[in-house]
Design brief:
The complex is a heterodimer.
Chain A (H helix, E strand, L loop, with lengths): L1 H10 L11 E12 L2 E12 L3 E5 L6 H7 L10 E9 L2 E2 L7 H7 E4 L11 H5 L1 H5 L5 H14 L3 H4 L12 H14 L4 E5 L7 H18 L2 E5 L3 H7 L2 E6 L2 E7 H6 L4 H7 L5
Helix pairs in contact in A: 6-8, 8-9
Chain B lengths: L1 H27 L3 H26 L8 H18 L1 H24 L9 E2 L4 E2 L2 H32 L4 H13 L3 H28 L21 H25 L3 H9 L4 H12 L1 H17 L2 H7 L16 H8 L5 H39 L4
Helix pairs in contact in B: 1-2, 2-3, 4-14, 5-8, 5-11, 5-13, 6-8, 7-8, 7-12, 8-11, 8-12, 9-10, 11-14, 13-14
The chains are: A alpha/beta, B mainly alpha.
Chain lengths: ~270, ~375
């Protein structure tokens, strides 16, 4: 009973934000702790199918914690705790019958720091997830490796050195390799936790292009955490602004940046604090 | 400023005088090797002094405060002299072992490692059983010890709840510090009787057709000695586990969390994540740990002497008594009669050192192979 009332309450501000489109990932009343420290509290917003949703906010606002709750990565940290729901196509990923590993297969993730497996070749890095799923057919793996490397526009740069270590690439290339690795298992949603913060501007531009092409051409649903407001403005359809663990405002990106409802949002996007 | 410089000059002169005094001493004591090595040290030292004086007099191109650069030079000088002790010591060591074993090398040549008689009365020496005993006990220890150690390390680093970890880590480190004679006496009075009464007869009964598990003797029914190669190998594996486990744990714990996350984000379960990211990333460290464990087992003397039976034979059956190189040196050095006997023991020591040396060299090569690809990278 209680749960349903809180859900109704959470749906109210959503009516004018995600209306009309299919909601892929619905965050409902999500609260997360590290030990006794509450990192985010009662966050609710939808991630719409085939859109890029950005989560922005100053350091320590809980945006990384939030995105890690969306594929059950948060619970890997000892002492952490999550309450609330995250509905993937209507069913809660925190359902106790579900294996978190299966959830993470359906909701891929790319991290702040490129983290290819240094002891694997470029090809093996891309297909690492497929191998976990039991795919052993060499031809199939080669095909997928090529397809995914093409999708992240890395194929032409590495096609002659697929056997080299994944760590032999530059930072930007490594990050695209990590995106290819996430794409290879064909996830339904892609989460990106500040994917460009360790990269130079050129590499950042390539990743941003890639995010947009993933959405437009491959119809991925993407959630991206960023501390770079221009980046959010460039790539995202909708933007969530977080502050001190709370979701302050969620709306279409244009509205967040040009005509925000909350004063706090306005002060943040105009650079008055951060 | 000039006061500092003169202090440096004075101490350099004092050091040179000291080394020169040592040289004279070695000439008087007619120790040509030490004379040669001290000369090498002196030359090295003079080179460092030259660099220091050149820097003191020369122009500084970097705008570092003069005081600290002087400190650096003195520091460098001290470190170079201390570090030069390592090559000097190993040279002396090799020289002594080779020159000491020269009589048996000349007398027996290669047959020293292929024959089995070690007879101080007729002055015939061969250490085939001892060499094989050392290698086989170490192999048994590695076969049992490595999987267990890695299991312990994975538990400590990846699985264990936060509260148990420090306690278990402490216990592992404590086990690594237990003196080998304690392992030996426990092995002799508790482990070996249990193994030879309760375990080996059953193993022999069911697996006796395999030569290594066959009856150690021709008696019927089969008689098992309380000391044997297998028991020595098992005690070595127990001694090796805490060392490999502790060092592997450090290697596993130094794997960045981003590697674990990479695996989890692909839908890996815990075991898959450990396997695909943690163990693979930490492989050089784990290999280094295994080679340290090897060195410990191969050179271990006391516990093995207790348990192996000290019989100069080498048979296919692991349940029969045997010998190792380290054990024969420890058992015989006080009774070595005559120069050839002593020389035979020293050559046994040379063999120990040679295999250990080869093993560490091999270990280095393997680690290099794994680290190379990573070093070439620019993991930001």
């Amino acid at each position: 009973m209680l749960e349903s009332t809180s859900q109704v309450g959470a749906e109210a501000p959503r009516a004018n934000s995600g209306a009309g489109q299919g909601v892929k990932l619905d965050v409902v009343d999500l609260t997360a702790w590290y030990g006794k420290k509450q990192a985010i509290s009662n966050v609710s917003f939808p991630i719409v199918d085939n859109e890029v949703t950005a989560i922005i906010g100053p350091s320590g606002c809980g945006k990384s914690t939030l995105i890690r709750c969306l594929n059950r990565m948060h619970e890997l940290i000892p002492g952490s705790k999550v309450e609330g729901k995250v509905l993937l196509d209507g069913s809660d990923i925190y359902n106790s019958n579900l294996n978190p590993a299966d959830i993470r297969r359906r909701i891929g993730m790319v991290f702040q720091k490129p983290n290819p497996f240094p002891n694997m070749s470029i090809r093996d890095n891309v297909v690492a997830g497929l191998k976990l799923n039991g795919v052993r057919d060499k031809k199939k793996l080669d095909e997928v490796a090529q397809r995914c490397l093409r999708q992240v526009h890395l194929w032409d740069e590495v096609k002659d050195e697929l056997k080299k270590s994944g760590a032999s690439l530059s930072g930007g290339q490594q990050q695209r390799l990590c995106i290819a690795r996430a794409l290879a298992v064909d996830p339904e949603v892609m989460l990106m936790d500040e994917p460009c913060s360790a990269l130079d501007p050129t590499a950042t531009a390539k990743i941003e292009e890639l995010i947009i092409s993933l959405k437009r051409e491959l119809h991925y649903t993407i959630a991206i955490v960023t501390h770079n407001m221009q980046q959010a403005a460039r790539v995202a359809d909708r933007t969530a602004f977080m502050y001190l663990g709370k979701l302050i405002e969620f709306d279409e990106t244009v509205k967040i940046f040009e005509n925000p409802r909350e004063q706090l949002t306005e002060r943040y996007v105009t650079g008055k604090f951060g | 400023m000039s006061g500092n410089a003169s202090i440096v000059r004075l101490s350099i002169i004092a050091a040179i005088l000291l080394l020169a005094g040592l040289l004279v001493l070695f000439v008087l004591a007619s120790a040509p090797l030490y004379f040669a090595l001290t000369s090498v040290g002196l030359v090295l030292f003079l080179y460092v002094c030259y660099r220091i004086i050149a820097q003191l007099g020369g122009q500084r191109t970097v705008a570092a405060p003069r005081r600290s650069s002087l400190g650096d030079l003195v520091f460098m000088c001290i470190v170079v002299v201390i570090a030069s002790a390592i090559p000097i010591l190993s040279l002396i060591y090799f020289y002594e072992l080779i020159s000491g074993s020269l009589p048996t090398i000349l007398a027996f040549g290669f047959s020293f490692v292929t024959t089995s008689v070690f007879d101080s009365i007729n002055n015939v020496y061969g250490v085939y059983p001892e060499l094989m005993g050392s290698l086989v006990t170490t192999a048994i220890a590695l076969l049992i010890g490595v999987p267990v150690s890695i299991g312990v390390a994975v538990f400590l680093s990846e699985v264990s709840p936060g509260r148990i970890r420090p306690i278990l880590s402490f216990l592992v480190e404590m086990l690594a510090a237990v003196p080998s004679v304690v392992y030996g006496i426990w092995g002799l009075f508790i482990l070996a009787p249990f193994l030879t009464h309760d375990v080996y007869p059953n193993v022999e009964h069911y697996l006796g057709f395999i030569p290594i598990f066959s009856c150690p003797d021709t008696f019927k029914p089969c008689y098992f000695y309380t000391t044997d190669v297998m028991s020595a190998g098992i005690i070595l594996s127990i001694m090796m586990i805490p060392i490999i486990a502790a060092i592997s744990r450090d290697a596993l714990q130094s794997v960045p969390d981003s590697q674990r996350e990479a695996a989890y984000a692909l839908g890996a379960t815990k075991s898959e994540a450990v396997n695909m990211s943690v163990l693979s990333y930490a492989r050089p460290g784990v290999i280094a740990a295994v080679f340290l464990g090897f060195a410990r087992a191969y050179g271990e003397t006391m516990a093995v002497t207790f348990l192996i039976g000290n019989a100069t034979v080498f048979t296919a059956s692991l349940f029969s008594p045997g010998y190792t190189l380290a054990a024969i040196i420890a058992n015989q050095f006080t009774e070595a009669t005559g120069p050839l006997n002593t020389s035979a023991l020293i050559e046994a020591g040379l063999l120990l050192l040679a295999v250990s040396f080869a093993a560490s060299f091999l270990g280095r090569l393997i680690i290099r192979k794994f680290v190379k690809s990573r070093e070439a990278s620019s993991l930001i």
